[in-house]
Amino acid sequence: TKAQTPDSPLRTPRGHRQGMGSVEEISEAVGHAFWDTQPVPSLNAEEEDACGPINPADPEKVRAEPYNLPPAFEWTDLDLSDAEQAKELYTLLHENYVEDGDAMFRFDYSLDFIRWAMQPPGALDYWHVGVRVSQTKKLVAFIGATPADLLCHGQRVEPRPPPAADKAEEGEGGAGASGVNIEEKLSGLDLDGGATGSAASSGGGAAELGDQAVVEVNFLCVHKKLRSKRLAPVLIREVTRRVNEKGIFQATYTAGVVLPRPVARCRYWHRSLNPKKLIEVGFSRLAPRMTMVRTLKLYALPDQPVTKGVRALKEEDVPSCCAKLNAYLRRYKLTPQLSEAEFSHWLVPRKGVIYTYVVEEAGEDGEKEVTDMFSFYSLPSSVLKHEKHPKLHAAT
User: Fold this and answer.
1) pTM (predicted TM-score)
2) What's the pLDDT tens digit per position in 111-148?
3) Distance of CA 121 to the CA centre of its chain
4) Strand 214-222 to strand 251-252: parallel, antiparallel, or no bridges (unpaired)?
5) Burial class (CB in 10 A: 0-12, 13-18, 19+), 148
6) What is the dihedral of CA 279, 282, 283, 289, to 10 degrees?
7) Nearest CA-CA partner of 224 in 325, 144, 106
8) Is 50 exceeded by the pLDDT of residue 345?
9) DSSP 161
10) What distance in Å separates the CA atoms of residue 106 and residue 111, rounded to the nearest whole number?
């Protein structure tokens, strides 16, 4: 999902061009026609410590009918437990999802990954929003949302406004709902690109929505031949409407461009595991005054882990590791919180999808205890127009 830069979404940047400013400066200079009309801070506005909704949600104003699509298109809900529908989404993403500016690499999520990303505990098929061609029923666009819990400055982001009685008791200084309005934040995602997400699940929309406070919006994708139809804004508004219908008015998402105004940012660092292949496909290049032999020696790994006591996470580790992870995450200003069911879904190892390891050490009483944990998910990309290497694999 995700390692995107303005120059190339998949590759390490090859250095700044002469005379170019920061990403923020470039973004501000270009302007944001949509964002300039929305109640969000500009990129150069002073930061504030206030935490709460920009516009309080009003459940009474949620639109009851789906948004209108251009002629010849129709809405569809995708049941990813159904093999045929899951394959349709895989094909759409495989052929049309995020690729780098030079058309050399394109994300290639597996079917298992897509199900993992879009079907966590509490997932609803109703939030797997697709667009089909009415005549052929071909899937040509998609956007998805999955439920989650989020803390902002130590306070839970609330899914809906408190009842009137609670508001009166809290007054202006009450906790209220925190976060930002979902449609305000999502409408800037007219990117036909994406973000990331996940799956457990009852098919056919039978799953019951739990007590999660927000949704994560992922996999915004429109068929390349239909980018001029302006389907992305309609997709964003429709998933917003469907989420609002279930009483949730806050969302998070990631984007590979700077939009007013990011609440968090992440810088990705690459560590080459197979430098020869990465150089051959054009992902990396030989450093100045370096030979291939010296590069291979530089990036060589030991045969066995240096850290003692490393092993794969097991299902029986879930209760203790979930508690420790949540406690660790609460150090940060904006952070998710996981139930044990969500922790199991997201982090218990799945071959080809998610890999999680713990470090186990013996305590003073001789009993073994988990002291550390790390994980990564498998993110393959198609290598376009390369005869020798069709795939590029990343541990993210």
Assistant:
1) 0.79
2) 999 999 999 999 999 999 999 999 999 999 999 999 99
3) 16
4) parallel
5) buried
6) 50
7) 106
8) yes
9) P
10) 16
